[in-house]
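Consider a protein example.
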Amino acid sequence: ALERSQLEDSTIVGVGDDRQWQQQQILKDVPSYNEIMLQHRSERVPMWREKGEMTGEIAGKKVYDVLEGLSVLKGMAEEYQWDDMRDMLDSELFHEELEISCSVLRNELGLRSEARAEIGFDWGSCAWRHCGALADTQEALAELRNSLGMFEPYECLFCIDIAERAVREVIAVIPPRFQPHDRVLAVYQGYSPQNQATGDDAAYSDSTIDADFLSTLQKLRQNLFDD
């Protein structure tokens, strides 16, 4: 049984110190080094070994699949379909298939050095190297996934647009022999900031919220690139 002093301390912390309680909850969710390495050995390493089974033709098609998936996400965002978006963002298409296809095109198929740099490395492993379009795609989708339910549709579309432009950069350097000839590259429709506010909030929203949001994200991305 807990002593009276211990019980009082736990009660005070639970009620009066909400910040400390939140920190404790966050720490519970942070995986340990051993847990991270176990996931790396049991999931990531086997995935890397299996990438040799993917041919250049399949890798090229997978990149087009990712681009088409982003188009589907746009429609979901406009309809506030957060659960469907979450399921799609958690699918293999935007994780294993995206990473493996870009790795195949970068490392195993003799792309010239400029093209290799354009594709870049996985977001979690690029370190000091030029991350490139693959990492840009993964970062934008991670930001979108983590903010679902908080972002407005136009904010979701902004993240999707970043990912789309990065995927198109990958497609631009895929050699012709690996381009899927049965697929047509859709015309790029640039992101157009728009907030659907009405009434008294419309003027403020249109003139400041979009501009502030874009400015903040652009500064953040610039700082990341500078680092």
